[in-house]
Amino acid sequence: MPRRYLALLLLWLSPQVHAEALYRVELILFRHATPLEASRHAPYDWARQALPLERRAERQPALEHIAARLTPEQGYQVLLHRAWQQPVSDDGPAIAIHQGQRHFEHYPIQGTLKLRPGRYMQTDMTFWVNRFGEYGQLLASERLTQRVRLVPGRLTYIDHDSLGLLIELRRL
After folding, report:
1. Residue 3: φ, ψ to 5°
2. CA distance 113 to 115
3. May I ask which residue range the UniProt record assigns to the signal sequence (predicted)?
4. Which of 41, 101, 126, 172 has the CB geometry, 3.0–4.6 Å to 145, for a possible disulfide?
5. pTM score
6. Nearest residue to 81 (alpha-carbon basis) of 56, 57, 60, 108
7. Which one-letter DSSP state was computed for residue 13?
8. pLDDT in tens, 78-136
9. pLDDT band at 20, cuts 50/70/90?
């Protein structure tokens, strides 16, 4: 085998080639039916080992034209619309996302998202939509939990009981 092919093979197998890649993640969580409350409330340690989404990682959403079509007149309610960039690697942490005013350990909208690289990106996600009482106590939770394979550059729809989620990944 010529040396240049051997050098290319060694370069391709080196860890730098397989280092973490940077992706832009955008998601829209919405309600499309009457709330279907989970049998259990969201756990107090809902974020577990996930890292909070940092403000400096957030980006302006690009799917606003799609979110604008999810109107109450059409039977939808947008609950969360966020975009951010993050590195994705095999051992990368999950990201904790929340929205609204905190009530003890919970937020009105909270969830975790973990991405793993590959030809089809694998994502594990769990989101809770919480309802609180007069004194801030957690009364009920809706839960969306899925493990999905995503194709970067393609908008993916996830349907789950009364909630839906649109997610798109783009390599930067």
Report:
1. -60, -35
2. 7
3. 1-19
4. 126
5. 0.85
6. 60
7. H
8. 999 999 999 999 989 999 999 999 999 999 999 999 999 988 999 999 999 999 999 99
9. confident
Mean pLDDT value across the chain: 90
Q: What is the pLDDT of residue 45?
A: 95
Encoded tokens for 130: 């919480």
From residue 8, give the alpha-carbon distance in Å to each of 13, 15, 18, 80, 86: 9, 13, 14, 45, 29
Longest dimension (CA), the chain: 75
Write the burial class of residue 121 (CB in 10 Å: 0-12 exposed, 13-18 middle, 19+ buried).
buried
In angstroms, the first-to-last Cα distance of the chain is: 35
Confidence of residue 5 (pLDDT cuts 50, 70, 90): very low
**β-strands 95-99, 51-52 pairing:** parallel
Length of the chain: 172
- Bigger pLDDT: 164 vs 11: 164
> Which has the closest alpha carbon to 29: 107, 135, 89?
107
Kindly give the pairing relationship between strand 21-31 and strand 77-88: antiparallel
Q: Residue 71's CB: how many other CB atoms inside 10 A?
A: 11
